[in-house]
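Sample 3 of the quickstart, ligand guanosine-5'-triphosphate:
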Amino acid sequence: MTTLTLPDIAAQASGQSLPLDWVGMCGIALPIRLDQHILHATADAGVDLSDGTSRGIHMSRLYLALAAFKDEALSVSLIRRVLGQFLDSHQGLSTSAHLTLRFDVLLERPALVSSESGFKRYPLVLEARLSDEVFHVELLVDVIYSSTCPCSAALARQLIQQQFLTDFGNRGLTHEGVLSWLGSPKGIVATPHSQRSTAKLRIRLRKECNALPIRELIDQAEAALGTAVQTAVKRADEQAFALANGQNLMFCEDAARRLNLAVRELPAVAGFQLRVEHAESLHAHDAVAQSQWNW
Ligand SMILES: Nc1nc2c(ncn2[C@@H]2O[C@H](COP(=O)(O)OP(=O)(O)OP(=O)(O)O)[C@@H](O)[C@H]2O)c(=O)[nH]1
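Result:
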């Protein structure tokens, strides 16, 4: 029987000698292990092609290195090892390795008052690169919250005062009359606008950090924001949420400052960039603030 040698196009010399910054595969389906759960992730895996004379990289070597994620719990050291394998399998071709993992984390959240609970989805991205023995890993997460405009609240309060003057200006006040007025639509003649808002955090982890501080980061961000969106909601929970929002008026600048001061407290965090987007119901565009620390 004749043994055929398979053609290896990647090993050929390139027609045009030119190094490339990133070559690899995007959107690879990958199981990862996190907190005893197996999650469905997608991976972008690549290296540079610093040897501009080579036709191509060896995609299969990157792909096969990713198999480590199926057996071992996700950690910073695992990611570093996989990137090391990308480079070891491309000696003479590549000097930097890149890996992006995208997956969702579901966290169970209790209702504010009732005994109900539900799950919230947090989209996570891990971006890592290894170049000249220098390793960087960044953790990105989106946190959704509710924000009520403080300016709109003040304007609404003024309208309520004016309505009060109109209705009671020439009348003697009675406890019962005021109480009944407060419970009527006239007692809340104007409402402030509020919006579903997104905090986008990009965290650089300290070198000594191996476990990914996903839960800590999300909890810290939600505590700082004060009015994270809810899961299961009965009327009692909705009322508590209305009260929480009324006590937590914020511009996007307020949200960005609070997050900055809270996230820098986390021991695993070496630096960060953050961006908050308030999807205004007042107008069709968003109010946005950005901030960074040790970046
Ligand atoms: N470099 C490169 N490979 C591609 C591309 N699209 C598909 N491939 C295929 O990816 C497959 C795996 O490539 P290699 O890793 O070089 O496979 P291999 O030569 O069997 O593996 P090694 O012996 O480890 O080099 C090959 O069949 C390529 O044709 C592309 O755009 N660039």
